[in-house]
């Protein structure tokens, strides 16, 4: 159901919007973790191949971020000021424009994927990555469009619908993965299809496609105040599309350079062998789970901020952002305790290679130290996403990843020949720097003057 977030308890609205978002995002992350779990039964080289592909693949997430972040402010602010016609037009353009951009991005990525992967690993590992990656690229427009539909529901105050969809298809993916991957399904010894790593990709794209079509049908057939139409998907609107590009452009550039920095960091990790790459892949997915509550809080609060800015209540928006920052720090403190207490046990679920487990456990410990500070900083960014003032995302990422983290890596690894531990420690310094920059821009207050529909 659509929900007016401009009145009532702020923390109640944040939690009501965030908790279903967290659960839904956790279910979505299960796609990748389940893939890694089953792929780990093939070999460490298979995990390394999927890790290298995924690191390169997420560079195209810049386009998803640009349009997705823009749509948060456009849809939530239009809905907050009760302009339901403008809300519907924004929804239509978000879905169709992102589908088109994903199609273009997937085509370019497919051309350059193999030579990019060959920079980091040998032919065998590249083969695993390509077996998994080409199909994922082919279905990229469906994946991006599914993200858009989930974002739209949240902007309208409905976090429950995308949660239910994502949980359902994640359960489906859990069962499809071993059937498509193995000739004999582990644990239950029934016949599978034996497609190997390619089977993991099939299971994922089937699940994501079902999620898209279910969400699409619900959004376009329900009878609420906001009524997008299918025919609106086939006609681009220049004014809205320009906003979809420009409002979130700093976020897109930020995501591109952040993911590009991950590619460069992967180069440092690869100096320590395929086991280090595999450990980076497994621990990285586990870190993804740690960020789900934080991103869920931020996305939920962004809808609150966007609607209240649309309604003209800046003071309420400020309270929402501050509460989100405090909650974010608490959540990340809990993950740090888990990483130090149970990191090795969790890694052991995905591989029995002792070197991979050792490297991955160190990553979970040393890489998590700065997350309490980052939790507060990223919580405050709900003010930026909701208002449409996204420049701080770009500057904080460029300085923290390229100016701090990569410089530390160059000095520690290239000059002083330090161990892999310094790769993991570099994340701590980058996280702390990013948090201070975000806090500075939040206190400066430019976001309070910004509106998407000016």
TrEMBL record:
It is found in: Cell membrane. Its main location: membrane. One of its GO terms (biological process) is monoatomic ion transport. The chain crosses the membrane at residues 12-31, 37-60, 99-121, 133-156, 163-181, 193-220, 263-283, 289-311, 323-343, 363-381, 393-416, 422-442. It is a multi-pass membrane protein. The keyword Transit peptide does not apply. Pfam families: MatE. CDD domains: MATE_NorM_like (cd13137). InterPro entries: MATE_fam, MATE_MdtK, MdtK-like. GO terms for cellular component: plasma membrane. PANTHER family: FMN_FAD EXPORTER YEEO-RELATED (PTHR43298:SF2), MULTIDRUG RESISTANCE PROTEIN NORM-RELATED (PTHR43298). This is Multidrug-efflux transporter.
């Amino acid at each position: 159901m659509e929900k007016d977030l401009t009145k009532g308890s702020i923390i109640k609205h944040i939690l009501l919007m965030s908790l279903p978002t967290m659960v839904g995002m956790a279910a979505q992350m299960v796609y990748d973790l389940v893939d890694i779990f089953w792929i780990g039964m093939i070999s460490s080289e298979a995990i390394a191949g999927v890790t290298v592909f995924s690191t390169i693949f997420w560079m195209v997430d810049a386009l998803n971020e640009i349009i997705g972040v823009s749509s948060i402010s456009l849809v939530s602010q239009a809905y907050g000021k009760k302009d339901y016609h403008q809300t519907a037009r924004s929804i239509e353009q978000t879905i169709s424009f992102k589908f088109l951009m994903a199609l273009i991005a997937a085509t370019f990525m497919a051309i350059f994927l193999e030579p990019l992967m060959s920079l980091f690993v040998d032919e065998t590992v590249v083969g695993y990555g390509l077996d998994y990656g080409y199909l994922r690229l082919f279905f990229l427009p469906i994946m991006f469009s599914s993200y858009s539909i989930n974002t739209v529901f949240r902007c309208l105050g409905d976090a429950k619908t995308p949660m239910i969809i994502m949980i359902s298809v994640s359960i489906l993916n859990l069962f499809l993965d071993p059937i498509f991957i193995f000739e004999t399904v582990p644990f239950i010894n029934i016949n599978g299809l034996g497609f190997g790593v390619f089977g993991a990709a099939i299971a994922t794209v089937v699940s994501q496609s079902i999620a898209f079509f279910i969400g699409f049908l619900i959004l376009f057939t329900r009878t609420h105040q906001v009524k997008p139409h299918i025919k609106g998907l086939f006609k681009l609107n220049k004014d809205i599309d320009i906003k979809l590009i420009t409002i979130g452009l700093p976020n897109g550039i930020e995501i591109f350079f952040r993911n590009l920095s991950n590619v460069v960091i992967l180069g440092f990790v690869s100096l320590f062998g395929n086991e280090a790459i595999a450990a980076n892949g497994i621990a990285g997915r586990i870190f993804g789970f740690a960020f789900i509550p934080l991103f869920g809080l931020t996305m939920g609060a962004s809808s609150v901020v966007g609607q209240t800015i649309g309604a003209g209540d800046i003071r309420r928006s400020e309270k929402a952002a501050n509460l989100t920052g405090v909650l974010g720090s608490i959540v990340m403190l809990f993950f740090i305790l888990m990483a130090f207490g149970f990191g090795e046990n969790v890694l052991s679920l995905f591989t029995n290679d002792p070197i991979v487990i050792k490297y991955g456990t160190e990553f979970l410990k040393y890489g998590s130290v700065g997350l309490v500070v980052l939790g507060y900083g990223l919580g405050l960014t709900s003010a930026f996403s909701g208002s449409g003032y996204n420049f701080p995302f770009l500057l904080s990422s460029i300085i923290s990843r390229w100016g701090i983290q990569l410089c530390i890596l160059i000095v520690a690894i290239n000059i002083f020949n330090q161990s892999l531990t310094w790769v993991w420690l570099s994340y701590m310094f980058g996280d702390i720097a990013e948090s201070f920059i975000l806090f500075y821009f939040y206190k400066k207050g430019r976001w309070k003057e910004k509106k998407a529909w000016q």
